[in-house]
Amino acid sequence: MAKINIVHLQTLCHIAQLGSFQAAADHMYTTQPTVSARMRELEGRLGFPVFHKRGRKMDLTTQGRELVQQIKPLLAAIDDVIYSLDDASHASGLICLGIAGLIGQTWFSQFITAARAAMPQLSFDVEVGQTSLSVSKLEAGHLDLVFMATPSLTSDRFHVEPIGVVDVLLVGSPDLVGRQGEYSEAAWLDALRSRPVWSLSKESPMYPLLMKVIKDHNLRIKVDICSNILTLKQLICCGTGVGLMTYPLVEAELKRGELVILRDAPAFPRLPFNAAWGMDQSQTVIRKLVNLARTISTFR
């Protein structure tokens, strides 16, 4: 009878993560019969089933779920050891990367420069988009890594590590709300009641922050939506309304006096940004990129 080895355990975790033998086979660059054979060997050695079939998906049995929970930390520890010993400078291949628009407008070019210097043979396919769409693509295996604001991912299926936080402010054009130094002449409640209000799309992590304030203060106002953060900034700068923006994106406009902070506005929770990636077979390159992002990120 074949002994249990690390490949059996890695295969088990990939099936648990991806939901099918075929998906695990594709992820591990092998065939579905090979994956099936590994699981038969594993179950034969263990003496109990680790999966039961539900349609096209494979669900963990109770014992299988307990086993996965036990071995995931061990596999992660092995990855950490390999990462500490491995030299990623000769790594090659394509990294599919999803990033938030704010990152693209701030420190992403410095990140790419550093990544190319550290691993010159890597290629990048970068998608700039909404958090929810990038998370869906990560879950489907179409992206290798995402840098996003609070991706709704659990550590059971993905690695998630912080890369910084940003302040969130209610801002408007001084032509629309007046000026008292760096703040608006109009108080924030008056501004929201009497001026148009803009927000990023409902899928954005900033949208619920704005809606909570509106609900908490019983404001009966409509909110206009814009899915592109640069267009949203331009709309607010041009005086078409007030809105919630991240400080790094409007820092220059605030310093030039093109925008002002709405006076006496409540303090919003700082918005955390994270790196997230799947439980890949090899973590060396991804971890190197995440460490670079944490070092270069201007979000603190």
Short overview:
The chain has 300 residues and is α/β, with parallel strands linked by helices. The protein has helices spanning 6-18, 21-27, 32-46, 62-85, 101-104, 108-118, 131-139, 174-177, 188-194, 206-216, 229-237, 247-256, 284-296; strands spanning 51-54, 57-60, 93-99, 122-128, 145-149, 158-166, 168-172, 183-187, 197-200, 223-226, 242-246, 260-263, 271-278.
Describe the structure.
This protein is α/β, with parallel strands linked by helices and about 300 residues long. It folds into three domains: about 5-85, Orthogonal Bundle (Arc Repressor Mutant, subunit A), CATH 1.10.10.10; about 90-165 and about 270-295, Periplasmic binding protein-like II (D-Maltodextrin-Binding Protein, domain 2), CATH 3.40.190.10; about 170-270, Periplasmic binding protein-like II (D-Maltodextrin-Binding Protein, domain 2, 3-Layer(aba) Sandwich). It is about 45% helix and about 25% strand. It has 13 helices and 13 strands. The strands form three sheets. The chain has a six-stranded mixed sheet, with helices on both faces. β9 (about 195-200), α10 (about 205-215) and β10 (about 225) form a beta-alpha-beta unit. α1 (about 5-20) packs across α2, α1 packs across α3 and α1 (about 5-20) crosses α4. It starts with 5 loop residues before the first helix and ends with a helix.
